[in-house]
Amino acid sequence: MKQNRNPFEDLFGLGGLGAIRSPRGGSQKEESGGSQPEKEPERFDSHGNPVRRFRPFRGLGVGIFVLFLLLAGMNSYYMLDEENYAVVVTLGSAEAVSQAGLHFKIPFVQRVQMVSKGIKGMPIGYMLETKESIDEESVMITKDFNFVNTDFYLEYMVSDPVKYLYASADPEATLKMLTQSYIRDTVGIYNVDDVITTGKALIQSEIKEKLTNRMMEEDIGLSVVNITIQDAFPPTTEVMNAFKNVENAKQGKETAINNANKDRNEKIPQAEAECDQIIKNAEAEKEARMNEAQGQVSRFERMYEEYSKYPLITKQRMFYETMEELLPRMKVYLVDESGTQKLLPLDNFVSSIPASQNRVSDNEGETQEAVQESGEVAQ
After folding, report:
1. Which residues contact 188 (CB under 8 A, 6 or more apart)?
2. Most buried pick, 152, 176, 215, 261, via CB within 10 A?
């Protein structure tokens, strides 16, 4: 009876388990008592040579496994030279390697990134390729309010590769910004002659010291090696005029602010003094009017008290006092039938009549008699 063959045996060239021979010369199926399957008859070409069957997937699994081993072997080591650092990242944790030589790593788990140990350069104030000046970076104002065009060259290196890669998004940009800031601050405390001629070494030293201390505070993995002034010269006429216009505008603004502050400082005390004076005058007038009113009230109360005792005498006395105040200021006009007007000052008229004194004395006598009569009636 013909036994069915497994198609995968022919496909992968395994030939079935029955084709595996035992060490004693028989097949395993023969030793186990099983029947041996019939062999497929061999095929021959026209010349009588046997034709081998084509098996497309024969050895595919072995090839994939060998390829995986090759890739793993290639990613299991790296070479590090003397001019670079190696930063090994393992599942998000970074570690720096500085020793040169052959190093091993876990394939597909650890990632290695190289960072140069060499000294790098950065131009400030000009373009390195064309040597063309950049006015926005190079033109500065000195202590004596002059303009100077200065070009600097900064040398730096990586001191900590891990912080260089992961502590800042752009450490070179941070370093350049800080360098420009300290350059302007330092140049601004020197005169233009010192910047152009004799003060270059001192300026370079101060900038390097300030920048080194600041980079230690920032701690972004960079350190300053040196900074030098490449060139220093007065700027062009157009740039000087533009900067002068800006400076004049700033000075005009400051002058206007100072004048306004001065005017305010002068006007505010003056206004406060006037306000205090007005308040004091109002307080004094209030006191005077209150005192006057109180005096009038007291006078009226006394007068009323006298009036209640001697009404007639009080009326006459008040009349005489009022007339005594009014008559000296009065003028009498006399008009006759012809229409002629004569002005007679009343004060002269009164003083020229001596009989008035007798009349007044008679009135005083009558007043005394009226007082006596009033006293008798009261009794």
Report:
1. 140, 141, 142, 143
2. 152
